[in-house]
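Appendix B, Record 12. Input sequence as logged:
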Amino acid sequence: MRVPATSQCLRQAVHRVPPQRRWFTCDRLIQEHDVVLLRQRGDKRAKWKLTPALRDDESHRIKLSYGAHVRAQDLIGKRYLDTVTDSAGREVAIHEASMASYIVNSERMATPIYPQDCSVIVSMLDLNPERPGENDDDDGLFEVFEAGTGMGSLTMHIARALHAANPPMRKDLRDAVATASLERRAPAPGGEAVADAEIETSGAEKPAESVPRDENEVSPSTDSELATPEPSSPVPSDIESNPTTPALDQQPPIQTMTLSRLDVAPNIAKDLADWSSSRRAVLHTLDRNPSHSRAAYKLLRRFRRAIYLPSVDFHIGSISDYLTPRLASSLGVPFLSRAVLDLPSPESFADPVVRALKPNGLLVVFNPSISQIADFAKWAVTTRQPLRLERTAELPNSFLVAADEPTANDCGGGRPWDVRTVVPRNAASEGDIVQVMRPRVGDRVVGGGFVAVFRRLKPMDGVKEEEKVEEEKVEEE
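Logged structural output:
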């Protein structure tokens, strides 16, 4: 007799999957330090909540809507789509957070590059990593440089694109990366080094629900704000007006947050160092604001148990302080394959980036206004940089819909629609159903901007490009 494929049958089938392959299923056990998305049954609509990293602690309770809460211990050991009961007796379903919904609903200290825009930028970077052992013609370490870590949303998307190029990591090492704290936190300008434990309890970072939406999103009626959003860059535009922000020449030496700074046992530290030396692709992300870098580090560490964190090295300082010594150590030989500049007036800081970029490498510049892109292109021409502008594109704005529907509020791309099958209240019978099909109406405008893609040429090719520009200018006159 044919047995129906019930959920129980499917779960039994999942249990027969070998343990080493069960991680790739959608039905794995929820563990300590995981971050999940909770769907609380409401009076009219469900309420969603992105949890912090779960702790196996009796005192760890997650606040929900309607004054209720749920214990983290009640979630640990469950599987996705399982349900628990909150303190008010309401049903709470456990969901896995996508990268887009995780980013949009996470803590933030800087305006993020929204997931839809991140996907476009990563596509323009043209990253095609090969798995270890697939190609004998290995060109060495594939290095990507990002100036302007900010919240870390673009950092996470680039790290996901590079992830397949690196060798697999043992489970015990992966657990250490996801759970261990840093030995010492990078010192703030003029301050003392702080233990990593204080990162978790610092009041400098506000949870996403405590930050008013109008501080992070742009209203459709405020076009001036859309033209000048808060930059997630290493050089804020208010550097001169803010007395607490040190000048560029007063910056402390470069501080780095890598796997070598984890507070782990000596044998684990050695194995992590060996794994790091075997990496085939790495993202160097830099920000001059230590708080931004620490928050971005936490963002990557908490997502899927730090799956993408090992591929990223975080640096705190200025672009010149990081790249100039590396160029000196390489005797001027370029070492970067890709670079991204997400900062105001990028032409003021791009010279060492261009010198460190390999020929045929790509430089992507992201700015909120087209005039900033034009200024950078003008700088490249007037200073005879070996760069060729290959593409300029405008990123469309996205709309945020109701905050209690994160699946439609993740800015993952595309225009959201409302498609429902309902029974009208005045229907003659239960069989009378109606389908609702209409586009969702957003209440906030987010994202957008302009992206330019430059290709690094050989020095002589750059001179020829400049001569060509001069010839075109003469012809126009």
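The domain at 7-96 is CATH 3.10.330.20 (Vcp-like ATPase; Chain A, domain 2).
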